[in-house]
Each structure stands twice: as structure tokens, then as C-alpha cells.
What we know:
The complex is a heterodimer. By secondary structure, chain A is an all-alpha fold. Helix content of chain A is 69%, strand content 0%.
Amino acid sequence: MTEHRPILTFIAHLTLILGIALVAFPIWVTFVAASHEAARMVQVPLPLLPGDQFFVNLREVFVNGIAGAGGIPVGLMMMNSLIVALMITFGKIAISLISAFAIVYFKFPFRMAFFWMIFITLMLPVEVRILPTFEVVANLGMLNSYWGLSIPLIASATATFLFRQVFLTMPDEMLEAARVDGAGPLRFFWDILLPLSRTNIAALFVIMFIYGWNQYLWPLLITTDRSMVTVVMGIKQMLEAAEQAPQWNLIMMTSLLAMLPPVAVVIAMQSLFVRGLTETEK
Amino acid sequence: MAQVLLSNVRKSYGDVEVIKGVDWQINDGEFVVIVGPSGCGKSTLLRMIAGLETISGGEISIKGTVVNKLEPSERDIAMVFQNYALYPHMSVYQNMAYGLKIKKIPKEEIEERVQKAAEILEIEDYLERSPRQLSGGQRQRVAMGRAIVRQPAVFLFDEPLSNLDAKLRVQMRLEIKKLQENLGITSVYVTHDQVEAMTLGHRLAVLNEGVVEQLGTPIEIYEKPQTVFVAGFIGSPSMNLINGKLDDEGNSIVLPEGGTVKLSKGKKQYKGQEITLGIRPEHVTLAKGKENGIEVKISVVEQLGADTLVHCTLGKGETKISDTGFVVRLSGIKTFEEGSFMSLNFADKHLHMFDAKTGKRIE
């Protein structure tokens, strides 16, 4: 790419700018809507420049919530979402690490059968098994609890499979060197396998956090208590707030807030995340 | 005394037996090299001593203790791997200290041992670096350092130099030899490299298809190979092996391609027998006359500087690529015309004879 053709450069940049605009425009609209009064948001045309009500709206949703939707403060919703997403993420990573460790490093009867069983569950997303899962969770008395919100989503074939592949790339000689050094299975796991899978763990953390944060159907199904509402369901409930026109400024403010934690996680883990997906050298 | 005893050691994977009964005593402080072609089971045997492979039959004992059922870490051994097998996320210091840390050795002593090993191997400056910042030779030193700090009864080396470039290999070979002499620790070293095999060990074991073909000092094995396999395997370029037949008096060997080799001492007891005649390339001389020599056709000449290798074919007919090759090694730079003929002579004392059927040496 050492050629300099002004027209090509121009077209390339134009395409890129258009792409960015396409992605950024909805977010801009959200931001603009979140900074106006409710009354302005029902007038046509919709504003394209920010208003002056941003911090007023922010305090309103964060502390009071939307009265028509039950008046649950968004701060509480976000706390719920955060707790659930973190429980799902850590749970998934822990369980997958351990099961991949078992499948790769231990010889036990029906090892491959277990691996394929886990692998086949990849084909069964939450939605497919939602009724039996609800039954189990209800019987265990976990409705309206963080446990009920997170545990059924923790088992993860994807993550198990990913860690299995990671472990398979570890040279056998390293395991043997550790055995000669006297490291038992648990020490090997903690001292060698975990630090070496660090980047993969980070990559998975990002993916799984977003997965947990974005859960909608499952929380909707098992939470009836208003104090357990997560932010993604909360937004939907705001739309259906009884006997009121939707308060777009507050809804958009909530959406904006709901976007922040995933963005923060991606930014914080960005460098590790990229290395986790691309690094091959062990 | 750190003796290693192998008695009737066997290993099989299912129906396939890869180690077929090895009996062997490695003395205290001895440096033994196992050499053989790839797939002969040499690494398997070493890994069985290390405890990384289970033992299907027989017994291995180290320092008088039967270790068949012991974990590698309980066998008082240290191993150096071909790919170094350093822990990439630990510094050099941590790599060397890891085994000691697990053994719960006090911190001061760990530090002392690592420092000492680092001094011996001249890697003091790298202790805080991570393995990926080191060159191949330095990594190999760290791997050896990790073995030294354990102060084991036995060192096991699994082709440790095969990932290094040629120049470094020569240097590290000397260092390993010196190191072993200074530390006096019983060592077993697996290699497929001729030169390492000849130079490193006090004794050499030539392994072929799971059987020890010959065990002896390198010079014994070079001078008196007991089987055709050992004769062909040890030495580079390898020994010329040609089929022949002792005549009815047992006084000379008749070659099917034509020509006879007269023996000064007759072998009456073997008269008329089919044999394999062996002669090393470096023991062949050019004949002045045509008496007592065999005539060969020169096909390729390789000038190595110090030596000249002349590849020839036996017999006078048309040359084919697949003809029995015969290599002659002459010192210094010599020129020959390719395609011409020459007569070769070999001294009687350098002739090796093997039974054509059993492959065993005939004295």
C-alpha cells in the first residue's frame, strides 16, 4: 500500500466515515434524547442537538426511576444486573476451566462421551430448555434470587470447548517438567495452567460479561419481585408503563446507562482480549 | 550410591512391544548415552526411568529402591527436555526455584542453590528475565539449571541439543561433558546424533527396535561392533557393508560383484558361509597395483576440506543409482574423475565380518 491515489483515499475514508456514522448515529440520538425534557421528546421533529436536562434526567432515573413502571431506581437495576452478570461470568469461567482441565488431563472412563455430552449442549440455548429449567429453579426455591438468575446460565459448552482447545496447545513436556518438579494436579492447574490461560480468560470474561448483562428472557421469567429487576428488562417495562406516553428522555437515559458497564469491561480488557484471541505462542 | 538398575524392563502399547527386555546396570557417576534410530524406543526407555511412562514388565531401581510405582518427583531424578519445557510465565529464577518451592525448601536455601547453579552455568545475568527473552542456548542452560538445583541422584537428558544450531551444539556438548565430570552425577543421555554418542558418554548403548544391540565404551563399539546393525549405525559416513561368501578353504572372501578379498588368517570353521563384510570408509586405501584389491567405479566425489568422500559402485557394468554404494574417505583434498575406475585395498585388521543370516559378528 505505497500507492498514493487521492481519489481512492477519499473513497476509502468516506466509506469509513459513513460506517462510523451508521454505528454512532443511534447512540447519538439516545444521548440527545436523554438530555431533553419529556415534553420535547413527543414533538416533531425530534431534536438532533443535545438539550440541557441531561443531569436532571440522570438524577431522576438513577435515584427515583420511572413512576409509571413501578418507580424502581435504575441504580438498583444496574446493581442487580452487575451482580448477576458477574456471577454468571465468574461461574462460567470457573466451571469451564475445571471441566476442561478434567477432560484434557485426566483419564477416566467415558471421557470422550462426557466431552461430547458437553459439546452437544451447545445446540441447546437457554430458550430451548427454558421450561424444564424454570421447573427446576422453581422447585429449588430460587425464584426471585440472584442464584436463580445466574446458576442456570453458568454451564457453558462454549467456554469449556475454548479452554479445552487452549489446554490442548500446552506442550506435553511442560506437564512432564511439572511432574518432575513435583507439582500435583492442583498445583499444576494453579501455578502453570491458569497463568498461561490468562489472556483466554480475559477474552472469555468480556464475552461472558456481555452475555450475562444482556440476558432478557430468563430474568423476565423468574423475577416477579420488583427489587430483582435487571436493567435490560427494566427498559422494556418502562416502555409499557401504565397509562402514560413513554417518557423517552428517561428511557433513553436508562439505555445509555445500561450501555456503560459492557463498554467499560471491553475497554479495560481490550489489550488482553485481543491477545487472547490471537496469541499462539506458549 | 546412585546406581540405576534395569532388569528385564519391558514396555508395550497394547500388543505392540516397544521395549523388549532391557537389562542394564548404570554405575554411580557414570555417563551413559543411549543412541538409536528414531522409533527405536530410546526416549521411551528414558521416560520410563523418569517415571513419565509406566513400566509394563521388569523392574527399575534407583539407589537401591525399586521405583516402578513412584511418581517422577519421588525418584530423585531431574530431566532436561528437548524443547526445554520452561514455564513461559515465570522468570528464569522462578523456573529454577519452582521444584524446590514445591518441596518446601527454605527460601534462603533455594536462593543459595539457584545462585550457585546460575554461576556454574553462567546465567547469573538472566535470572530476572523471562524465557522468551532468551536465545535457544540460554534456554537450554536454564533447563539444565533447573535440573542442577534439584541436586538429584540421576540426570536424564532427552535429546537436549537437537533444537540448537550446529555451532551452539558443539559448544553445549562440551559444556555438558564438563558439567557432568565436575558434578559427578549419574547421567543418562538420549540422542540420535553420532558425535554426541561417541564423545559424551563413558558407555554407549545402541538400541534397535526395543533391544539393546550392544553396550560398551564408544571405542569398543566403534572397533568391534557386535552386530551388522551397530556396525552400520555407528560411524559417519557409515560402514560399507557388502555381501560375500567365504571360499571353500576359508582363506578369502568372494564378492558377487567380482573380486576377492584375501584374508591373512583363514577362517576354516566358517568356510563356504555367506557373510556380510564390513569396512569403514576411513580404513580404505587406494591400491597401488591391482593385487588384493577390488575395483570400483567412481560416481560422486564430495570435497569436505579436511576429507574427501568418494562414493563408488562395485562392479564394472553400467552404473545404476541403486547399486551397492561404497564410500571411501581419504584425508586431505584429492581429485578424481567421476566415472573412472580405481582399485581399493583394505588392511586385514580393519575388516569386520558378520554372519549373513544372524547378523552377529564373526571373530
